[in-house]
Amino acid sequence: MRAEKHDQPTRPKARRLTKKTLAAGGVVTTLAVVGSFTGIGAATAADSDQSESLAQVISSDLLNDVIGGLTGEQLLDVGVVTSGNPSDEGENFNPLDVEALGLLDVSLPTINLPLLSTPEQPNGLLDLGNAGLINSFGHSPSPTESKAASGVVTADGAINVDAINEGSTDFASVDLIDLLRQLNLDGVSDAVIDELSLNLGALASVAEKNAGTTSSEYVVAGAELNLSSPLAGDLTTALGGISSGLGTALNEALGSDGVLVGALNDIDLDVNLGLLQTTVESGSVGVNGLPEALDEIDGLLTSTIADDNGLLSIDLGAGTIAIDLSKLVAGGSLNDLEANTLLIDSDTATQITDAAANLLGNIVSSVVDPVKNIVNSLQVDLELELELRVPLVATVGADVTINAPLGQLLGTAEDFDTDLIDIQVEQGGLVGALLSALGVTLDGLVSTLLQPVLNGVLNAVGSTLGTAVVPLLDGLEETISTPLSALLDGLSPVFSGLNEVVNITINEQPAPGHLGDESFTVNAIGIALLPSLNVANVSLASSTVRALDEAPFTPEIAVDPDSVEQGGTTTITGEGFEPEETVTITVGGVEVGTVVADADGEFSFDYEVPADATPGDVTVSAEGETSQTPATDDLTITEAAPVYDTSIVVNPDRVEQGGTTTVTGEGFEPEETVTITVGGV
Questions:
Q1: pLDDT digits 0-9 by tens, 533-578
Q2: Residue 602, CA atoms < 13 Å, CB-side half-sphere
């Protein structure tokens, strides 16, 4: 059997961390490296490898010179894993060592800002969060197969869905404000914004190539821009004034020693019903849940409100603004997006500006109306002591209790719910008899007393609260909207110019990949900082693979003869192997020897079957040290025929004609029939 020969393919030389084009079109400038490292990166694949992988937690042109100088152990420590076939096929897995990030003491090329934040250097551009879940993985099991994974991935290179779903993975934060400050943009960074950062949830990517088919997946659990501005001071001051003002006004008006109590005691309410007269002797007021209501109002005034789409939100208490970048794409998810989806451009900047206007319009429904509802829902308990008199006859007391929401007490008597009023009058005796004689029932008395009592109460409440609480409620919208509008207007240029500060690309797939022209790379997210100035391009959770579309060699072997007795010998011949490579021969899974292929990639190997080999069908395999693709053929081992050491003795060995001799034998098969011949007969 002879296989068709294939010319040995020309393999592309692997390139380590090649420069790639920025999303904005520029090429990043090489940075200066602080410190020095010696040695060649032992963890990088060999140039002769036919497939390889590269997994990087952080991928950036800024790290080229650093990674090129790290030793293999250092390289792994900073979240880079490689594999290569045949030099180191893996499976290689490495958790990120945050402390080892201190090795990467690098600064951006145009400003004095460290790239990475570490415990020793906390003020870097990039701060990695929950490093305990950040890993890298590489595996290249054959020339046509390779896999890389990076980020929140498991030891077998799969995305760690459970960890991502738990929401416990704050992957990274990118501090952008120092970029503006160090580029002398003080007018923006100090007067308009004093914080600008990009916060990222869990990130992961996986890239695979197998027999010419390339596939990838990625996860971006969330991405949010956070801003704060000195302009927010006016907003927080105004909101604090509302909270304290309402609290003061309500306490002064409705407290046990408040103005309303005094006003009730001063009510001059005389009702003359002929012989029956009534007068308000005293009054008291109580408010249920006032401290809790004030706490609830304070919570509203320090809550977070958002536009209808949830794109832009503001923390009223802190004055900080968050932009949820997932809301910039259809469906509200940053996953399953097309390759190289650019999140922030002129169109999406307009979306953010529109969201700011919508957020401003939500003030009434989000804050103003709920605050008013809380105040109006306060339960007020009014108690009046009345005196009922029949001149020259008798005097009795009556207690009037009104339990009503404050909002209803601020209304009119005509709209008041009479079920909220309870009037108890002393009955019996002379007054009771007199009421009956006059034909006055209790119901009639309540109806008669209701209108003047309510008028007096409402006048007291209205005059007390009308100058305190009501103006605050009526001016609530303007009080909040004015400073908030000023804040959003001041930030409008920042919103519209975000794409000039940072370009964010989801499912970034640069071409060529990081391992050369025939490689493929997927980055969960790519970040181009100040793209027009080419300051830096940093990609996170980066996975790269390179593999041959088809095997470069087609090894074949033949076993002849293909059926051999125990102790027999067969010849194994092979062709289609890489010239002069070492080939390992196994029979039934057991290595039986090695042979070196000749200049044509052929070999011949004689195999002697052990005498005690188990009879049956076995697989013969030959695998080259470089070509690796094993070739197989079948061999049948049969049981060897038994070998007998037979002998006979003739005694006597001389016999006369007609005489007799005895033939004895040994070494024969037990109980077998033995044919004896003499002279061939």
A1: 777 788 999 999 999 998 888 899 999 999 999 999 999 999 999 8
A2: 10
Residues 545, 454 share a domain: no
Q: Please work out, in degrees rounded to the nearest 5, the angle formed at the alpha carbon of residue 330 by the alpha carbons of 328 and 335.
A: 85
The answer to whether the bond into 561 is cis (omega within 30° of 0) is yes
The predicted model gives 136-151 an average pLDDT of 93
**Confidence (pLDDT) at 242:** 80
Question: Which strand (E) or helix (H) includes residue 233?
Answer: helix 232-254
Same domain, 48 and 152: yes
Judgement on whether residues 15 and 107 belong to the same structural domain of the protein: yes
CB-side neighbour CA atoms (13 Å) of 94: 26
CATH code assigned at 564: 2.60.40.1930
Do 14 and 69 lie in one domain? The reply is: yes
Q: How many domains does the chain have?
A: 3
DSSP string, 252-320: HHHSTTSHHHHHHHT---EEEETTEEEEEEEEEEEEETHHHHHHHHHHHHTSEEE-TTSSEEEETTTTE
> How do the residues of the chain divide into helix, strand and coil, expressed in percent and rounded to 5?
30, 35, 40
| Three-class secondary structure of residue 362 per DSSP | coil
> Are the beta carbons of 633 and 599 closer than 8 angstroms?
no
**Given the structure tokens 């009479």, which residue do they identify?**
418
Considering the domain architecture, whether residues 597 and 524 belong to the same structural domain is answered as: no
Helix (H) or strand (E) holding 392: none
Give the three-class secondary structure for 520: strand
Measure CA 152 to chain center: 8
Helix (H, G, I), strand (E, B) or coil at 69: helix
Residue 415, domain CATH: 3.15.10
Q: SS3 of 30, please?
A: coil
Given this model, what pLDDT does residue 116 score? 74
Q: Apex CA 514: angle with CA 128 and CA 539, to 5°?
A: 25
Whether pLDDT at 64 is above 80: no
The candidate with the shortest Cα–Cα distance to 100, out of 75, 127, 71, is: 75
Check residue 611 and report its DSSP letter: T
Structural domain contains residue 247: no
Give the pLDDT score at 569. 95
The residue among 169, 162, 156 whose CA lies nearest residue 203 is 169
Residue 198 falls inside a structural domain: no
- Do 533 and 614 belong to one domain? no
**What's 61's DSSP letter?**
G
Q: Give the position of tokens 């470089």.
A: 626
Q: Are residues 410 and 466 in the same domain?
A: yes
Range of the domain at 620: 556-638
**330: its two tokens:** 């259809």
Q: Could you tell me if 61 and 143 lie in one domain?
A: yes
Spatial distance between the Cα atoms of 94 and 116, rounded to a whole number of angstroms: 19
Average of pLDDT values for 150-173?
83
Q: Cα–Cα distance between 616 and 205 in angstroms, integer?
A: 48
The bridge status of strand 631-638 relative to strand 563-565 is parallel
Residue 23 lies in a domain: yes
| 286 HSE (CA, 13 A, CB side) | 8
Report the pLDDT averaged over residues 256-261. Answer: 60
- 590: number of Cβ within 10 Å: 8
Closest CA to 84 of 6, 172, 180, 14: 14
Using alpha carbons, list the distances in angstroms from residue 517 to 53, 206, 513.
14, 19, 7
